[in-house]
Every structure is written in structure tokens, then in C-alpha cells.
Amino acid sequence: MDITSILLIGAQVGLIYGPLALGIYFALNVMSLPDLTLEGSFGVGGATTAVLLLKGCDPATALAGGMASGMVMGFLTACLHVYLHMNVLLAGILMTTAAWSISLAIMGAGNISLLSQATLFDWVGKGFGLNAQWSQILVGSGFSLVVALGLIWLLQTNYGMSLRAAGLNIQTARGLGIRTETRQIVGLVIANGLAAMTGGLVVQSQGFMDVSIQTGVIVIGLAALMIGMSIFKTPRIVPSIIGVILGIFIYRVVVTLALKLGLPPYFIKLATAVVVFAIVAIRSHGFGFIAIPGTERARKAAREHLDYLENDRVVNIT
Amino acid sequence: MSSTSPETRPALEVVNVLKQFKQAGRSELFTAVNRVNLTIAPGQIVAMVGSNGSGKSTLLSMIAGSQRPDQGEIRVAGVAVTDMPSWQRTGLVALVRQNPEHNVFSALTIAENFALADAGKSKRFNLKGAVTPRIKDMARAALAQFSMGLEDRIDNLAGNLSGGQRQAVSVAMATCRDPGLLLLDEHVSALDPTRARVVMEKTEEIVRARRVATLMVTHDMSHAIKHSDRLILMHRGQITMDLGAEEKAGLTVPTLLRRFEELTGESLPDSAVLA
């Protein structure tokens, strides 16, 4: 099997999801807001981009429009949390359900073909004389790089520091003069804008929009986040962001490999979930859960497991 | 805003403040703070003692802004803060809590923590780089006062520091903002006795040098007597004893505990008695 071609396919399909993975990192890790709206924003962003392309907008404007629609979704979720005092998880579930109808309303149909519309990938392909694969790699890596550098810059500024503070401890942050509710709104607007950016890129790259593309897409980002967080175990920003980008690439290489080895395509989502389970297991247990019974390592794992059970807390989201 | 200078206005005025809570399964309300009046002069260090549930923490929360009184008014340096959100009070009030986790962000470096404190003082959360040479100099100068070697570690994550070091950073961050009023909520009680003494002594030194009015809650009676200008005692939501500098002079821990028992009929838990 050709390893180069697998790496190239991983980069081609994976790096487009870089902004989504960074959006999930931003919401879940930096802001500590478990926002599932990201999945809905991905679909709404894709729908808006597709419709704007059909209306004759150029690919960049259409993508910007898609992003804006995702930012509105994030704003609404944040308002549900801040003004209706709704748990973010619950707000996200509701918004994602609503997003399905919103996408259909925007599209006016279940799917839209964009085969006759020029896309960003056509622009880059023509501009640099590249084939489809290389233009997808170039666009995907370009967007991932710009978003990664943008987040690294933002999170080192005074405002970015206040966003991080609001995601670490709300009481401490407020004590330092940070209006945490506006930070949560801004944080979710940014994260959902990034998810919608990936939605718009995916629609342009595959040449059609189907309302079902949003289903389960958050798991891809979660897989990337989990892989990324396991590479450099640090709360520092730069290694974390590099880790997330590496994570999305590694995830796609693994999926490509699995498909080449004969895994049926309908198993991809199951395989993704299993990858996330495996990473979480290794992160929380090391390799203790496969230790031989009776060894010191097994006893240590048993103690840690008991500590977890003793300290487990319920979270009531109603 | 009144026209008098900040130096002549009281640092804190608590006027007739009442705070009640619902009790689970009961119809009558529990009165945590019962019409308390308290005035603190600029630069004065006030120690507040009292048993658990006496209302000390609730009073502190209302001054810091995490809770709101049902009735009454609170003014800090002449500014009415009664219904002001906590994030708007930053220039006026600084709070150091008991748990070091709640004072500094473990996931940020010491310098980044100082950058937040500095930006919060002026509410300038702008898009300029947070950790500048000015911030680093300020952090080094503020930390050098504790002589713990922390000034050489400002690029370390705050999570790598010990509890005592983190409380030192917290006091340095709170005082470098020059707040009108500093609130210390048992800020050394989680530390071992030696560390607690060092952090307490340095805190008093810095607060006196900067002339920051301070309200300090403590369970350590010797700290309360030694490191204050005035000692007040809270019991069942009210201030039952208020000793100025002259009355406090010559006071010993056993006398203080006895006076508390005479006043309230209960004994006062003192961490120092056990030490």
C-alpha cells in the first residue's frame, strides 16, 4: 500500500476540517462550553454557502456569508445560556435540532448541486495550475493555518486572555473585572463561525450540499481534539493548537487507512467513536486497564478507578 | 461622585445591610446578615473573627459583589456598589479567597495572571499583546516583595506553584491594582503554620506600605490581634464586639476567647489554639 497516497488523502480530506476542530477546541477547551450547536452551524454554514453560490456570489463571499450564518447560531445559543439561564449542552441540542429545519428553509430543498458553480478550489486549482487533490490540500492547509495563527494571536492579547479566564473560572474572572457573559457570547460566536467555515468549505469541495452533512460531524472534531490534546499534554495555547491540527490530520489518515484495509464506508462513524473511546481510555487509565491482575500496576489502576467513582458528580442540565 | 478626595472618604461603608436565605423545607427565612453597619477608614486594617455561620463570608460576598443584599447600602471609597456586578468593582475592591485555586488561574503563567489583573484594573481588555515587558517588570517587582524567589518564575504556569506561593501571587496581584478596599477571606488558613506566618507578615507589610484599607476574615486569633488596627467579632449576623487599637493593645488570645464566650455563651473555634 502506498503510504504517500494515504498521507495525501488524509491531508486532502482532513485539513478542510481544521477550522471545525479549532472551533471545537475553542468552545470546549478554551471556553469550557460544551456547545453542540457547532454541528448545526456546520450544516447552516454549508446551506448558506451553497445558496449564495447559486445566487451568483463569488466563492469567497459565499463562504463569508456561511460563516456569518454560523456566528448567528452561536450568538443565539449563547443568548439562550446567558438570558434564559439554559444549560449550554441543552441549548446546543435544541439549536442543532432546529438547525436541520433552518438549513432546509435556507436551501428550499433537501440537496443542492453546485457542479456548474465556480468554487474556491477551482480558483486555487486554476490560479496555481494544480489538480483537484492538491488544490484541496492547499485550501485546507491555508484555512487551517490562518485560523490557527489567528487564534494563537487572539489568545495572547488582553482580550483573548480574558476569554481564557472566563473559560477557567467565572468567579475569579469576574473578580478581575471581566464581564464573563459577553466573553461567553463572543466565544460561541467565534467557535460557531469556524464550524460554519468548514461547512462552507466542505460544500464547495464536494460540489453539492445535502442537509444530512451535519449529522455526526462534531464527532470528527472531537476525535481531532482528543488526539491533539493527547499529543502535548499542556494547557499552553501554541502546542494545543498545533496538536489539534495534527489531530485532524492523524484522524483522517487513520480513517483512510481503515477504508483501504476494507472497512465498509458505513462503519466510519462507528470507527470514529471507537477511536475517541480508545483515546479517552488511554488518557484516563494509561495502559492500566489492560494490566495483568495482581500486579502493582493493576492495583494502582483499581485505586484510581475507585477515586473516580468516589468523586463522581452528577450534572443536572434541566 | 462627591468632591471630597479619596483619602478622606471612608474606604468602606456598610449601612443597615440585611441578607436572608431560604432554608430547605422551612417556611421562615434564615438571617445571615442582620442589619449590619460597618465603616472602615482609609488605610485601616480590620480583622474580623466569628464562628462558622456567623455571617462573615456572606458580608464579604456582598462587598465583593458575588451576592446582593436584600436591604441596605454598601459604599466603597464613596462609590455605591450595592447592586453593581462584581466585574465592575475591580478598581474598588480586590478579594483574596481561601482556596489558592480560586485566586490565580493555574492554566496561565504568572505573567499572564498579572496581565489580566492589570487589564482588569483599567478594564482595557484590548487586542494588544497581553504579556509586555511592562507587565513582566510589574510582576517581578510585586513578587520580589515576598522574597520567595517567585520573581524568577514568572513564565511558569501558576499551577506549578505550591499553595503558599500561589497565595503570595494572589496578594501581589490584588495589591498591585491599588484597590480602595482589600478583602482577605482566610487567605492563609489553607497553608502550613510557617508559610501562613510568612504570607501574613508580608501581606501586612505590603498593605501598610501601599496604605490599602483591608478587611481580613481569619480563624487565627493571634493573626487577628497581631496584624490589625481594629478587631471586630461577628455573631449570628451581627457585629457583637468592635475593638479599636487602644482596646486591642495588650489583648491576648485566651482573653479574646473568654470575652467571646461571655458575650455569646458559645466557644470560638481558633485554629491557633490547636497549633
UniProtKB/TrEMBL annotation, chain A:
Q: Which UniProt keywords apply?
A: Cell membrane, Membrane, Transmembrane, Transmembrane helix
Q: Does the keyword Transmembrane apply?
A: yes
According to the record, the segments passing through the membrane are 7-28, 62-84, 91-114, 134-155, 185-205, 211-232, 237-254, 266-292
Q: What are the recorded GO MF terms, alphabetically?
A: transmembrane transporter activity
Topology with regard to the membrane? Multi-pass membrane protein
Q: Which domain of life is it from?
A: Bacteria
State the Pfam families in the record. Answer: BPD_transp_2
Q: Which GO terms describe its cellular component?
A: plasma membrane
Q: Where in the cell is it found?
A: Cell membrane
Major location, coarse class? membrane
Q: Does the keyword Transmembrane apply?
A: yes
For this entry, the protein name equals Putative ABC transport system permease protein
Q: Which organism is it from?
A: Paracoccus sulfuroxidans
> What is the taxonomic lineage of the source species?
Bacteria, Pseudomonadati, Pseudomonadota, Alphaproteobacteria, Rhodobacterales
TrEMBL record, chain B:
Give every ABC transporter domain span.
Answer: 12-261
Would you tell me the protein name for this molecule? Answer: Putative ABC transport system ATP-binding protein
Compartment(s): Cell membrane
Provide the GO MF annotations for this entry: ATP binding; ATP hydrolysis activity
Q: Which UniProt keywords apply?
A: ATP-binding, Cell membrane, Membrane, Nucleotide-binding, Transport
Q: Which PROSITE patterns match?
A: ABC_TRANSPORTER_1, ABC_TRANSPORTER_2
Give the highest taxon in the source lineage: Bacteria
